């Protein structure tokens, strides 16, 4: 049995990926978009208590809740995962 793929798999697992966190969508009309100014509040289609969605590319991989971090990362946002999508078939 040829085991030459093992090192490649290990290296592949260390490649960083970008995860996009979606907190909601806005659907303004073009005329409203043209009126946007500083301090304008753009309503989203979600409530503060609704889960956020985590994507790799276009693929949904998890859902979670936004949290403010403590300690040396105080003031930064994090996501506590509440649901992870089965990724057994890959990303």
Automatic annotation (TrEMBL):
Domain of life: Bacteria
Any one GO cellular component localisation term in the record: plasma membrane
Pfam families assigned to the protein according to its UniProt record, in alphabetical order: FliMN_C
Localization of this protein: Cell membrane
Domain Flagellar motor switch protein FliN-like C-terminal: 12-85
Keyword Transmembrane helix: no
Any one Gene Ontology BP term: chemotaxis
Family named by the database record: Belongs to the FliN/MopA/SpaO family.
Protein name listed in UniProt: Flagellar motor switch protein FliN
Source species of the chain: Rhabdonatronobacter sediminivivens
């Amino acid at each position: 049995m040829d085991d030459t793929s093992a090192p490649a798999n290990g290296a592949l697992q260390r490649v960083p990926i970008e995860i996009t966190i979606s907190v909601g969508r806005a659907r303004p009309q073009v005329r409203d978009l043209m009126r946007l100014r500083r301090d304008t509040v753009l309503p989203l289609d979600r409530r503060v208590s609704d889960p956020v969605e985590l994507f790799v590319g276009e693929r949904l991989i998890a859902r979670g809740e936004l949290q403010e971090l403590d300690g040396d990362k105080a003031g930064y946002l994090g996501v506590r995962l509440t649901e992870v999508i089965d990724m057994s078939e890959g990303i």
